[in-house]
Amino acid sequence: MHHQSHLRPAPGFNPTHHATIAPAKGFNPNADVETLHTAMKGMGCNKDKIIQVLCCRSNDQRQEIAKTYKVKYGKELSKELKSELSGDFEDLILALMETPVCFDAHQLHKAMAGLGTSENVLIEILVTRNNAQINELKQVYQEMYKQSLEKDIIGDTSGAFQRLLVSLCMGSRDESHHADSLKANQDAWKLNRAGEQKLGTDEDVFNKIFATQNYSQLRLVFDEYEKVTKHSIEKAIEGEFSGAIKDGLLGIIKCIRNRNGYFAELLYNSMKGMGTRDNDLIRLIVSRSEIDLRDIAQVYQQKYEKSLEDAIKGDCSGAYKDGLIALVKGNF
Hints:
It comes from Panagrolaimus davidi. By secondary structure, this protein is an all-alpha fold. It has helices spanning 29-40, 47-54, 59-73, 77-84, 87-97, 100-112, 119-128, 131-145, 149-156, 159-169, 181-194, 203-212, 215-229, 233-240, 243-257, 259-271, 278-288, 293-304, 308-315, 318-329. Helix 5 (87-97) packs parallel to helix 20 and helix 10 (159-169) packs parallel to helix 15 (243-257). It is elongated, with a radius of gyration of 21 Å.
């Protein structure tokens, strides 16, 4: 399923952000198709060649390669790759072959299907995509799963967390930079009354303010909250909320205070402790590679005194590790 949308710069594309993957110069889809075809022929698959091509092209170029492959060999490239590869490396390569919006839809669906919901995936995607991306995502989700994203969220989550996600899913946050300090002060009082001043928390007041106001305005609200209460909004949320709604609200705050730091922390969490949460690691590296992965890697290094590359080397192995590193190092 190819959506034309991936031919424009990604919504929210920001020239001040630094990606690691750019459209490869001197791109020749026919040559790439030949390389891939040869890599998959014969005994054993040449994974290095697959990395050389697919981890060093932009998503638009990968879509072009897939089209050319189909014309030339009458087969779906993704299906061929799937039958040749396995494990985490297969997941990484197939993730790279999806358009960003289909990949998001797929990840959300997977987070809600099966046993238990991966709340962290719902938070990460719905909190960090802009209105245009969310609205396109809803359309694609409906086409892919014949069900609205909102309906699936409602069927799979409950309470205040459900209401927060449904609000975010509206894709109607104010995206201006207009900030009004008087209103911020009133909202800080509102939040204080709805939370710490009250027995039981009025979550909907938090939801409404957090899900609809623009980032510049929310920064002011957080500053005002600190003046009013003499402590941070984070501390209030830690004390008043628990579980997924707490994580959701804190996710929004982290995103506003330091977006690159938020992604660096998610990457760190995907690799800390025993075993790697590979689905999270793949999603983060793939989905940020053409947006701001270079910035995230810089913050990662400062925050954890270890390069993202070294963290991946310590945690992953084989072609899977090489593919991730190729995306982190980038192609320019």
